Amino acid sequence: MGDPFSNTDRDVFLIKVERQIDRGALLSRYSRASALDIREVYRKEFENDPERGPDFYRRVFMEYGDESVSELVTVQMAVQNVSNVVSKFIEEQRIGLSYLEKSTRYVRYSVKRDGRYLYADPDRAGIQQSLSGDYEQACDLLFETYSDLEEPLYRLAGARYPLEEQVFQVGTETMNVDAMSEGERKAARRAYERALRARVLDDIRFLLPASTLTNVGISGNGRALTYLIQRLRSSALREARELASSIYGELKGELPNLIDAAVNRHGERLTKYISGISSMMEPVAPGAGEDVRLLSCPDEAAFGRHLFSAMKSAGLVPRGARDLPELAERISSMRMDRRDKLPRPFELARYDFTMNISFGAFRDVQRHRFLTLLRGYLNTDCGYVVPELIASDEQARLRFVEAMETAASVHRKIRDVQGPQVAQYCVPFAFRYPVFISTNLRELCFFMELRTSEQTHYEIRRALRELYRQVSERTPILASMMKFVDTREHGLGRLRAEMRKEANSGN
User: In 222-269, where do the E strands start and end?
Assistant: First the structure.
């Protein structure tokens, strides 16, 4: 083991103690230690006592019930081969955990492992034996259609977005391939082919079922991981409960005593409470609706008065802005790109809206943690989206429709016998998934500016352009600060990023 601290004589230093449990316990001593330097505490209490960290957490939890100190322990954890049903359940937890998941937009899912496509088998999904054959047949058909359509759609996309008609960014100039040097032309072709492949994957991912296996990287603190285990244990899904046991087993050795809070008497009580709340919710059919609909937003005159009153109460008022229109104009003029976020006072403005987009698109929306998002179980009741390239070819469209209708029939069969939760596994990404979303203006601005950018999936871009139109109609002053909502169409949204990759590679 190396030095436990990055330096020994400065006020700012990194803690490099080997075990996370010791790092968290050491930082926790700040609240009680009389020593002026935590490094001194380490030498006195931790350096020669390997049980100091675990004992600290055992005593704190048992004697004081203070869970906040577990937030000082962080872990990086990989969860592999988990279904999209359970990965979305995991990622619903917004505080204390950060996630990175395997992409369905840039990674092909046509490969097999041990002779099987990459979806949860019936046993893992909790599907009873009498329905397992139907389930596997539906999932196999979805993956076979995915595999069969990839190359035909690649050719179709090439005809729809010819290389010669694309505009490329080369240094500070924009040009087409005819104006390029030989080296630039080769780089442009490589970028184009990757962007074209990504565009095809954007369409065929609609065929993937929610049972599709994915990998999730998780970085988070001990308190959040404890709650994650409790949530997973509360689930009616077999896969989720088994995953809870696996996570607990891995963390038990790394975070002794601390992670026991997930399964002790208090942890069991909380798990039962979470399960009870879930059981209280009865699924209903939400009905069809627009892709996006703004339900409520601030009255700008009343909000302007409230905003200035709130800022004055906090002892701050904006210089040179007497009312909301002047303040919005000044802020808009100061924003140079979408990374310049609106000031925090604009979190006082609330917007509620519904989205009725595909489950595939929802997966990207869910990543925005400041959205208060209400959702039910995946189902096939609201129909499905037929992606653009597939819709433009009759043979591909018929194959797609056959796979969707087969999956919908099996979903209904499983739902009738085993209920709505288990039935989620065979719902394809294409099916519409209505959700209710509430958020503040600051987050709404960030959300719409980011998710209308050219690299975003076209279904989300179009839905948020429509949301932006509705927001602009009803709150034009506030919408004037959303300068970087991109209202243009982008055929090959990945093209510019792929061209930058070529420039950075030096090829």
Answer: none
